[in-house]
Inverse folding.
């Protein structure tokens, strides 16, 4: 089976712009979670989707949003980018919600 | 609130044994997971403890004690390739998220 894929892998944006990141889960996995990781920090939970429904959302401002499509692919969007949004954004898929399989991440730099 | 605490860094010698602890202040979780992340890479799953006790997978073992709010990852016969960050995470089950520790950077010296 192909693993979790994320596009793009690297992105440079300027403050005030918006960005959309994409995640394709492992075939058959219906749960997709998104995380933000900054240097020296753990993974901060953004949101989780299952069958196109957001089941949980972390403690992030409304500028962070996401969605899931009928084929389980997911996107997250960040509007009005701030310098502090520079981070590695990781997507993970799972079938039963316990073991998560991570994609390689999208490294976003905001200048 | 819910939180997990891990040491920020641990140093060990190649061939030795090292234990990475994870203490938590949360309740009602389904299980404790451990993930490994190499620099520049994505986290990869190592182990999951749903029940108290020891789970062994090759050179890696993981332990959970709910009564002590404590778990650990034990790595034996350390190899240079084990140099990575290790994260513990609790599975909150019904609200569909993992709560993560800040990670422990394992440095292995020859």
């Amino acid at each position: 089976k192909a693993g979790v894929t994320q596009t793009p892998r690297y992105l440079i944006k300027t403050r005030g712009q918006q960005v959309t990141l994409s995640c394709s889960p492992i075939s058959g996995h219906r749960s997709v979670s998104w995380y933000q990781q900054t240097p020296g920090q753990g993974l901060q939970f953004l949101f989780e989707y299952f069958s196109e429904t957001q089941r949980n959302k972390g403690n992030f401002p409304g500028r962070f949003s996401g969605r899931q499509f009928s084929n389980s692919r997911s996107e997250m969007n960040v509007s009005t980018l701030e310098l502090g949004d520079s981070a590695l954004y990781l997507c993970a898929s799972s079938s039963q919600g316990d073991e998560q399989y991570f994609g390689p991440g999208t490294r976003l730099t905001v200048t | 609130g819910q939180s997990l605490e891990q040491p920020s860094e641990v140093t060990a010698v190649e061939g030795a044994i090292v234990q990475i602890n994870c203490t938590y202040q949360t309740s009602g979780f389904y299980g404790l997971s451990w993930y490994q992340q190499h620099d520049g890479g994505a986290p990869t799953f190592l182990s999951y403890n749903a029940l108290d006790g020891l789970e062994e997978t090759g050179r890696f073992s993981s332990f959970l004690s709910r009564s002590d709010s404590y778990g650990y990852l034990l790595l034996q016969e350390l190899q240079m390739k084990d140099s990575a960050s290790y994260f513990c995470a609790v599975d909150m089950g019904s609200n569909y998220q993992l709560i993560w520790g800040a990670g422990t950077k394992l440095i292995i010296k020859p």
Remarks:
- Residues 11 and 108 of chain A are 5 Å apart (CA to CA).
- The mean pLDDT of chain A is 93.
- The first strand of chain A starts at residue 5 and ends at 7.
